[in-house]
Amino acid sequence: MAEQHTMLSLRGLTRRFGGLTAVDAIDLDLAKGELISIIGPNGAGKTTLFNLVTGLDRPDAGHVSFEGQDITGFSPERLAGQGIARTFQLGRVFGNLSVMDNVLIGAHTRLRAVKPAVPVIGPLLELGLALLRPSSVRDEEERLREEVKAILARFGERLLPRIDQPAYSLSYANRRRVEIARALALGPRLLLLDEPTAGMNPTETAEMQGLVAELKAEGLTILLIEHKLEMVMRLSDRVIVMDEGKKIAEGPGEQVRGDPKVIEAYLGHGLSGAAEQESAA
Amino acid sequence: MMSSWLDYTINGLIVGNVYALVAVGLALIFGVSRLINFAQGSIYLVGAYIGWVAVVQLHTPLPLTIIIVAAASALVGLIIERFGLRPLQNSVRIAPLLATIGISFVLDQLVMLTFSPNPRALPSQLPDVRFQVGGGTIGPLDLLIAGVGLTSALLLFVFLRYSKLGWAVRATAQDRDAAMQMGVDVNRVNQAVFGIAAALGGVSGLLVGMYYNQIDTAMSLQATLKGVVAEVVGGAGNVPGAVIGSLLLGLVESYGVAVFGTSYRNLFAFLLLVVVLVLRPNGLFASARQGPPEPLTGTFIAPSRPVRIPRWALLVAAAIFAILPFFPVSFYVLQTMINAWLLGMLALSLTLVAGTIGQVSLGHAALLAIGAYTSALLSLTFSAPVGVAIIGGGLMSAALGTALISPSFRLRGHYVSIATLAIGEIVSLVILNWESVTRGPIGISGIPPLSLFGYELVSPTSIYWFSFIVMVVLALLQARLLGSHLGRSFRAIRDDDIAARAYGLSLNRYKSLAFIFGGFAAGISGGIAAHLYSYINHETFNTQQSILALTVVILGGLGNVVGAIVGAVALVGLPEVFRVAAEYRILIYGIVLLLLVRFRPQGLLGTM
Amino acid sequence: MSNIDRRTLVKGSLAAMMASAAFSRSAFAQSSEPILLGVSGPLTGPNAQYGTQWKQGFDLALDAILADGGINGRKLAYSFEDSQSDPRQSVAIAQKFVSDPRIVLELGDFSSPASMAASPIYQRAGLVQFGFTNSHPDFTKGGDFMWSTSVSQADEQPLLAAYAVKKLGLKKLAVLHLNTDWGRTSRDYFVNAAKEYGAEIAVTEGYIAEERDFRSTLVRVRDSNPDGLILISYYSDGALIARQARQVGLKQVICAASSVYSPKFLELGGEAVEDVHVGTRYFPEDPRPEVQKFIAGFKKKYNGLEPDAFNAYAYDAMNMAAAVVKIGGTDRRAVRDAFMKVKDVPSVIFGAATFDVASRRVKGAMNAELVVRKGQFALWDGKPT
Questions:
Q1: Is A81 near chain B, with CB under 8 Å?
Q2: Confidence band of A33 (pLDDT split at 50, 70, 90)
Q3: For chain C, percent of residues with pLDDT exceeding 90
Q4: Do C and A make contact, counting contact as 3+ CB pairs within 8 angstroms?
């Protein structure tokens, strides 16, 4: 894959909390169109790694580059503007917003008519345009709403009938779906999925797996944190195993699966992360 | 002059000592419940009056007085915990904060009804020996207060570190759910903490009352304010930090007086708070870098389905209010409704910033003041037509208010409330001290009456229509704003600012826009008020207004435009209905707030 | 204006007799309904104590008025509306009063923001707003329906300055004042008068009403080396300052404005207020009959409680209102005109009170120079402290 165009590249990425090194000198290269899964026991630093890539947290050392540009320390809003979208481990939908509004927020970075790129007075123009709503703004909003419906249609009848319901009233699985829909609405060039199937039953998991496979087939570049190994093996081009902040194995799924270090990491912690995740959900 | 600096230092430490007594109790409660207990000052008040009864009527000796006060105050604390706060455990995070505000109203008012508002002397029971220190003297009470402050901080430290219950308290503070799973009886921990904090608060009221030989019902709010400042400066929830924060606050105030004069004292106290909040939001003594906090999604605001009011019903209601002056209603009713419309504009503003974008402001009256002063000065100094001056007031309030509040944009939850409270106080103190512009305490008189296109609006009927139309226009604009992409962006930031940022929403940009829009509405309300009253000074727009506005917004439903107006009409109207029970009005108000938080936290019309 | 001496006292009581003889009786139709006055003032909120004190003063005055047969046979009563001294509420109360035909006159509000916000309403409706505690210089400029018996600070402060500078011989003064419209206005009048009498102002310090701690302020005062401290304070803050001044070792003469004149000042200040000088408008041993009647009546009605300045203001105000209504009857405009006619009404504060029609205030407040001796207010004997 190395000969292909590199989308995301991490070099020596490190993050410490007090005495604990949550992410320890991680290197990673993700090529365009590739799907890499990150697995590892709980507390291995997977979510912290996502936070570092998406700007929610700053590394103590190391670099992140995206499409050749060094983006280390960029704010999350700026990274969203560059086309990086993510979902959250704990399912962070906007509880009081309707499904439609949640997904429309995903398209926020693509608003143009209502958000003129004018320095200094840009925000005031945005306020004025939001109140006046000339036809360009109305058209844009209408177009995005249609797009949202198309995205929601990818989840079959799961979300469309609930399009006007507040997100807090949705089932756990549906909230995960809303999160993914929201990420898709950003029109991402890089998608980071943090345990998209957590708390889902086998049918729902299979559906989700199908969707991720579809996205991959459409050429989307994806970084996936997932505990369900079955799904990881099916979808991943490569798998990275993390333990105690370090990358302990990397390679095609089957190869990683047999790696003694990986087995030890899971067994050494007594619990399989996947098992714990299931019971927590 | 060196000796004077020594004196300023000693005086700063002495008064810091006094603050520490309240701050330690606040820190303890915050440590466990993540709650800023606005009722702590009221417990301090209750302690002072129980002490007065013991000393003056029962003639108890000091040790017994302290025990009585500690026990009685602890009991009050336990009652507050059991009946005021425990039912709110699974409620939204804003609920307990509001409940403590309601509890403080109730307690203060009960004390006032029982003991009358007259100040009373609370004689010290210690021998009146004085020791020369620097240029001044200190007495045994200074030492006792310092002793109680330090000993209680030390005891708490030992208790938290080494006792089983203390361990449970710390475990609960770190992770409530985990502690519960590990078998910690969280309710018992909360009880213990409230009991201890209340005992400490009561004893501090007693000692401070003796220190000044004076207790009165106004001491409650001041104690809470200074205690909160000291606690947050030291790092909320950090007991030793609260003591150090208190001493620091005392010193800053004392040096502020030394350099700039007495009238700048509180200005320095609140500036210290804002600076600390902006530079080190976790307090001076928190560890420098903590992991990113994991806010719970959508729990600050109650999830609810807003009541849908059909458009025709709104039109009918608006039409009825529009033709109200044609009915035989008294000018008194019209004036009351004018007050409701003015408060409604303020509530529209606050419901946008507190409800829609989740910045619960406790200093919103400052925006009224900015609008009122700007409009008054524009019309008096520059002879601007009143209509133009009021719009000028709205614009100034939008611009200046947003600029002042912007340093707190990076804060979350209760810290926003504390910061806005401080900013509100700062605005009021700047108005008091900036005499060349604001005429200081003398205020501005002779503000021309409302007029439009050369016609003076002086009859209650015309003022009624004017303020009603302005409010309706502002409400329609706000409804239109909420229907745009900005409405959903604001609400997304409120529900989960981390997720919102991850989707490209800049917090600074959208919080600014919310404050600009909200500041305009509040400034218009202040501007109209200035021309209506003809006289304003620094006391016209005070903290009570801010708290009233917040209650209106919560009553109506956070972020709910119609709710803000309904809430304003209710909270202007109800006290007028209860006029017969004048002395009981604040009591009733407090109880209504408590019941509301308990049984309908989403407000009458629901959160939008 | 002048010290209380035998001549003023005689003049005062004579005037009182003349005034009562001049009361008009014709203006009243017989009615069993009481004549109603509106009172707008604080009964709750931060200034609640002052509203309570007003009530005591009003009730005492009304008892005597009723005992004397009321206003030509009709009872005089008041309707007290709690404004919390909040302008929003005082304007609503104003509308309530002006549209209630039974109300012939309004008393209050307590604070200037609350009173002056309501003034335009009273002025337009033509109901007298009798702001008896409103010393703000602009209050009576609100219109010809604004009247006040609040001692003008332009009158009071020169008296205090004369006491401090001329009588006590203080040459270098530190002025501490409440930073409100009242305190600020008072300070300016005091400073002008004191300078005129040849004193130097070493420092002035304004403090907010909620302040409790004055130690650092007093270090500033000490560093300015004054030979006297002037307190433009209310009794509670005045007592705090006096206590802390002694604690930080300031032994200078303290001279306070009449607003500290209250038994509470002695109670709260304790030993620290010993030898504090107070310029007041009356004092307990004042032989003037209106003073003796007031103090004796007050103690009798309120279980031995000593009256204070705010009780006296309210008592005087109610008596003045009665005198005005006796002349003006129940017509509001006639009541306004009666303020111009009423003459030499017996008054604790003014001796015999007559309005100056141009300023709509009463001039010539009495002056008593007191000092705290053995925990009691006593007439100053001229001895230095």
A1: yes
A2: very high
A3: 64
A4: no
CA distance B266 to B390: 30
* Distance separating alpha carbons of residues B158 and B144, to the nearest angstrom: 20
Q: pLDDT (tens digit, 9 = 90+) per residue, B146-177?
A: 888 888 888 887 877 788 877 877 777 766 77
pLDDT in tens, A38-84: 998 888 889 899 999 999 889 999 999 999 999 999 999 999 999 99
Tokens of A83: 């086309």
Say which CATH number the domain at A65 has. Answer: 3.40.50.300
- Of C58, C66, C11, which is closest to residue C343 (Cα–Cα)? C11
- Per-domain boundaries in chain C: 16-151+289-353, 158-280+368-379
**In contact, B302 and B602? CB cutoff 8 Å:** yes
| A154 lies in some domain | no
> What ipTM was predicted for this assembly?
0.91
Between the CA of residue B527 and those of B373, B460, B541, what are the distances in Å? 7, 17, 12
Q: What is the CATH number of domain C16-151+289-353?
A: 3.40.50.2300
Tokens read off for C350: 């003014």
**How many other CB atoms are there within 10 angstroms of residue A68's CB atom?**
9
Tokens read off for B592: 């209504």
Whether omega for the bond prior to residue C109 falls within 30 degrees of 0, making it cis, is yes
Q: A133: which chain B residues are within 8 Å (Cβ-Cβ)?
A: 480, 484
Banded pLDDT at B316 (limits 50, 70, 90): very high
CA atoms within 13 A on the CB side of B324: 24
Chain center to CA of A158: 20
* Separation CA C235–CA C161 (nearest Å): 19
Domain C158-280+368-379, classified CATH 3.40.50.2300, yes or no: yes
Q: Count structural domains, chain A.
A: 1
Residue A206 domain flag: yes
Which site among B409, B476, B485 would you substitute to test the A interface, given the most A Cβ atoms closer than 10 Å to its Cβ? B485
Contact (CB, 8 A) for C234 and C178: yes
Question: Could you give the CA distance from residue B109 to residue A1 in angstroms, rounded to a whole number?
Answer: 74
* Closest residue to B492, CB basis, from A17, A88, A105: A105
CA distance B276 to B264: 18
Residue C385's pLDDT band, with cuts at 50, 70 and 90, is: low
Give the neighbours of chain B: at least 3 Cβ pairs within 8 Å.
A, C
Residues in contact with B398: Cβ distance below 8 Å, sequence separation at least 6, in sequence order: B515, B516, B517, B519, B520, B523
Measured at the alpha carbon of residue B497, what is the angle toward residues B494 and B502, in degrees to the nearest 5? 140
Residue of A160, A158, A161, A183 whose CA lies nearest to A172 = A158
* Cross-chain residue pair C215–B331, CB shorter than 8 Å: no
User: Is B477 in Cβ contact with A108 (below 8 Å)?
Assistant: no
Element (H, E) at C355: strand C355-356
Q: For the whole prediction, is pTM greater than 0.95?
A: no
| φ/ψ of residue A251, rounded to 5 | 155, -175
Say if residues C106 and C128 touch (Cβ distance below 8 Å): yes
Q: How far is B499 from chain A (nearest CA, A)?
A: 6
Domain of residue A185 covers 6-93+170-280
Structure tokens at B338: 């004018």
Residues facing C200 on adjacent strands: C172
Query: Looking at CA atoms only, how far is residue C93 from chain B in angstroms?
Result: 7
Helices B186-212 and B219-234: crossing angle in degrees, nearest 10, is 120
B341, B533, B542, B588, best to mutate vs chain C, most C CBs in 10 Å: B533
In whole angstroms, what is the distance from residue B139 CA to residue C270 CA? 16
Helices (H), C105-225: 112-125, 153-161, 181-196, 215-223
CA distance B420 to B518: 14
**What is the CA angle C93-B320-B567, rounded to 5?**
60
